[in-house]
Amino acid sequence: MNERYLWDKSGESDPEIARLETLLERFRHAPTAELELPIGAHASAASDIVDTEADLLGAPDVSDASGSRTKRVLVLLAAAAAMVCVWFFLGPERPVVRGYPIVGLEGRRVLRVGDEVTTGEQQAELQIAELGHVSVEPQSRVRVEDCGELAHRLYLETGSIHARILGEPRAFQVGTPAGLTVDLGCEYTLEVAPDGRALLEVLTGQVAFEFDGRIVYVPAGAACVSTPERGPGLPLFEDSTREFKQAVATLESHGRLDSVEQEAALFDGTREDTLTLWHLFDDARTPAELTLRAFERLSKVFPKPEGATDAGLLSGDREMRAAWMEAMKPSWRVQ
Amino acid sequence: MTAAESAPIGNRESSPHAQAPRVRSVDDLAVEDPAAQSDVELVTRARTGDRLAFAALYARHAASVHGVCLATGPIDEANDLVQEVFLSALRAIDQLEDPGRIGAWLVTIARNRARDALRERGRVVPIDASVTVDAHASPRAHTTTDEVDEDEARAVLAVIQSLPESYRETLVLRLVEGLTGPEIADRTGLTHGSVRVNLHRGMKLLRERLERTGES
């Protein structure tokens, strides 16, 4: 796939993409399509809209006094709003739905705590309170663990979900056999393989992957694989160089690097790649020599925060490390 | 006709006489031409009832709104949904907090309206296991009648609609509406990085699903 052509149509045309463009352009919005607004010949757009509302409400036509008409419509709208309020507070008892409405499956329409949904060939979409939506992809199994008592929390047993959440950090969480993803205000895809491994890919914002007291931050454009045995591995940006990715893969699978070239690729990466190095540095399981190499590289890129010392950072002082990481975050596409 | 009247609009040098009536400059045109104005300026004018300004906003953002409607809503209702979205936007334009983000605001309205339209139909986007598409087939390999192309195009679009929202929206804007990555970012309020990731991941997923449905 020609990434340049996909991005801005520059460079050599990609045959596969060009074919899809040709095939799908029949659905394109016609530039000549006109906007059909209820606009009269001489009235302004704003007053025309009021006219339309008035028509909907059955208000009499008083075309010679648009100001009084506006007032009349506003009075009618206010009256309608007042009626809704009265019904809201004094009317029949409102049904309390403690669950997530589900669209796309026959039968049960609301998932409550303890409920589980299994998709076959079909996708299902959950409305997560006022926070956003979660698409449960085909061949997936999801369970509701909390509907907002402490947080909104699902458990993805297997398959894949796509979450688009706009809410307070930590308001939405998804458990997996390989750890808990905690939404920090973002959009992401989470996939769980039959063996329990989880792949997290973040599109916007950031997600914290938590496991056994350890926290891995995965910002937009980055991904992280987690296993039930070891929890989340090193997060890395999807557009990092192939050499960098290979070095990380080797390190993850063998616990060491295979060559000088791999060391160079890992420790001489881009400023963004310090995301990976930070988590290597901050993982107590990392061999001492690699911790030191990561520390040296990070020290070159980011000045240490006020009050932080080499000894404190290396010995694992949480406050010092947290302050240092905050200074790095702007370089990690954290929005 | 005086020399000034015959001078090309915007060409200041063509009116060398200080006493001659001042011709319109490019700057003047920029002020008057809604298409040349920023979203903020257009929203400000639209709020006063300036229909030309609102029409310019429509011309600028209709494609992205259409793409978002097409990505989620019923295919045959996309054009109607675009009309509804802009009508809703006009009604609520005074409530828009940041006029500079009208693109993202319109896209949000479009997304919600498309979902509503889908719910009104009482179904989700169909994931039709019987859809058979071969994305790698050469165009020349087809006996390209309009009907075959139409069926295939709808099948491909259905597969795109089955992708996660951010992927399908970005892909529709790129492949159907013909916007580039930077244009998509500009119209939707997403960062370049997010659009790039959506395009990359979306294409990867689309290819996988097209191959899968092609095998079924």
Structure summary:
The complex is a heterodimer of chains A (335) and B (216). With 335 residues, chain A is an alpha+beta fold.
Structural summary, described in words:
Chain A has helices spanning 3-8, 15-24, 45-57, 66-90, 242-254, 260-267, 274-281, 288-301, 310-315, 318-328; strands at 100-103, 110-111, 116-118, 124-128, 132-136, 141-147, 152-165, 172-176, 179-183, 187-192, 198-204, 206-211, 214-219, 222-227, 231-232, 236-237. By secondary structure, chain A is an alpha+beta fold. Chain A has a 16-stranded mixed beta sheet that branches. In chain A, helix 3 (45-57) packs across helix 4 (66-90) and helix 5 (242-254) packs across helix 6. Chain A is globular. With 216 residues, chain B is mainly α. In chain B, 63% of the residues lie in helices and 0% in strands. Chain B has ten helices and no strands. Chain B has helices at 3-6, 26-32, 39-47, 51-72, 78-92, 102-120, 146-161, 165-176, 181-188, 192-215. In chain B, helix 4 (51-72) packs across helix 5 (78-92), helix 4 crosses helix 6 (102-120) and helix 5 (78-92) packs across helix 6 (102-120). The termini of chain B are far apart. The chains are: A alpha+beta (335), B mainly alpha (216).
